[in-house]
Each structure stands twice: as C-alpha cells, then as structure tokens.
Amino acid sequence: MILSEFPDLTWLKHQINERFASRQGWGGRILKNQGWPTVILNALATNVKRDNIRGPLSLFTNIRGTSWVSAGGRPVKIISDFFFLTNPGQYYSLEINQKTELTETFNIHFGEQFAEEVMASLSNRPEFLLEHEFEKPTATVNFYNRLYPKDEVTNRLIDSIRCRPQIEPIFEEEQLYQLLAHLLQQQTQLYKVKQMIPALKSSTREEIIKRLFISTDYIYTFFHQNLSLGELAQVSCLSKFHFLRLFKTAFGETPHQFITKVRVQKAKELLQSKSLEVGDIAKQVGFNNASSFSRLFYNQTGAYPTQFRA
C-alpha cells in the first residue's frame, strides 16, 4: 500500500491501539489482516510533526529534503543518502522542519505479519520450515537505531517500488522481501563488528557499539564541519583515547579516516552534477579550499575531481 499523504495522527494512534481490529486502512482501504499493514509513505510535505507513534519495523528515508526521526529520545537527521531503522513496537517521532522547501519522504512500514514471516524464512533452516510447516515460525531481530548509508542494493530496490505508481502486490512483496534480506545481511555484519570489541560481557559490548554508532551518526550529519576527537568522544560518552581505541578496533579505521571516506563519497555524488564548481563542492564536504580537497581526493581515488567528473 503506497500513500501519498500522512494519515490523520489521531486516527492512526487509535488504529494502532486497537491493532487495526476493524481492518480499516487509511482512505477506506480494507486490510487483509489485523495488526500493522505494510505501508509505504511516499509523500511531499513541509512542516510536519508526528510524535510518539508505536510502529512496526520501519525504514525512514527521503528522496529529497530532510527530516528528523527519534527513537529512544535521540533525534537523528535523515537526508537522501541515508536511512534509519526502528524496531517493532518501538515508539518513534518524525519531524519535517522546512516550512517552504518540500521534503519527499519514502518511509516503509513493514506489516507485522509480513515482517515476521520474512524474518522467519530468512533466519530458519529450510529443514526446520519443512518439518514445522503448520506452525507459525518466529524470529526476533533487533536492528540498531542508527543511520545506514544507502548502497546500490537499497537504492535499486527503493527505485523499483517508487517508479511504479500502480505497483502489483506480488511485485511489491518481492521487492520488500529482498530489501529485508539485505537489511538482515547488514545487521549480521554489525553483529560481527560488535564481537570485535574487547569486553568480557556481551552487554558491555552491546552498550559500547551503541555509543560508537552515535558517533558515526554524528559524523554522517556533520562531516562537513571541523570535527574534533574530543567532540566525537563526548557525544559517545567515552573518554577521548578510549573512544579512539574502540572506534579503530570496531571499524578498522580511525575517526579521521572514517570522516575522510564519508567526505570523498559525498564528493563523488556531488561531482555527478556538472552545474557545481569543484570549489563549491570542496566547501560542501568540509574543505577550506579546492587545492587541498583535490589533493586528498586524488590520494583516495587516484584521480583529481575534474578527472573523476570527466
């Protein structure tokens, strides 16, 4: 179900509290099942505020413009290069602060039953599914509330849905299935990152990785600014050199190397536009002058910005 407008908030919260028992969807649609349905919100909006919604597994992103999503009380800025995940039953808030510039959302709320069945099929062995074909398989996966950079797979799947206004249900389910499979694969990699953290207790590693993800969210949001090691450690609630050691251990690179990688990736995207001067791009990604930006870009990619653009 693709919606081009935000449903009335009072109506939505009532339906959530009743678990959509009436099977009434927004706009008079009849739902197949009770519980959160699968909803894709592809809307153009300005000045939106939606607080304290208990949602299903949800992916928040924008095609253009910015929004802010908070889960657990921490607001995160969402731009078109990233997406943010919240878990089933988790409360979230969404804000679009622009009063004049339009933001085009592309938020995916995975239906309760759909997400449960997909996660179970991806998490259980085929033998188990065959032996328990009359049982409802269960699988619990908690995603980290953090910014995830969009990659080729997520962009392709999102575009495949967005570019079909009259999308067939079977095609929509196939694409969302592939998207969930990709998200689960990414989450598995993050679990491996967590295991790299030198701590005896699993709960300690979990707390540390969550704090480190706060710092990566901060970098993704403010990479164009002159970030300091102390600033990143402070937002992570860690001492400066403890943070440096843990960051390098978890991600295999220092915070400075991580920031440089983010800046270069953003510069590559901006260089796709021939209307932007290299000097303007340098400023947008955090460099004071074009020459220092060009040298760093060459060192990272083996080509100068003008060569890369050509």
Strand content: 15-25%
Distance from first to last alpha carbon = 41 Å
Give the class from helix and strand content and strand pairing.
alpha+beta
Mean pLDDT: 86
> Runs with pLDDT <50, length 5+?
none
- The count of helical stretches stands at 12
What is the top-level CATH class of the largest domain? Mainly Beta
State the total count of DSSP E strands: 13
Proportion of residues in helical segments: 40-55%
CATH superfamily membership of the largest domain: Jelly Rolls
How does CATH name the architecture of the largest domain? Answer: Sandwich
Descriptive key words:
single chain; 310 residues; alpha+beta; Jelly Rolls; Arc Repressor Mutant, subunit A; 3 domains; six-stranded mixed sheet; four-stranded antiparallel sheet; 12 helices; 47% helix
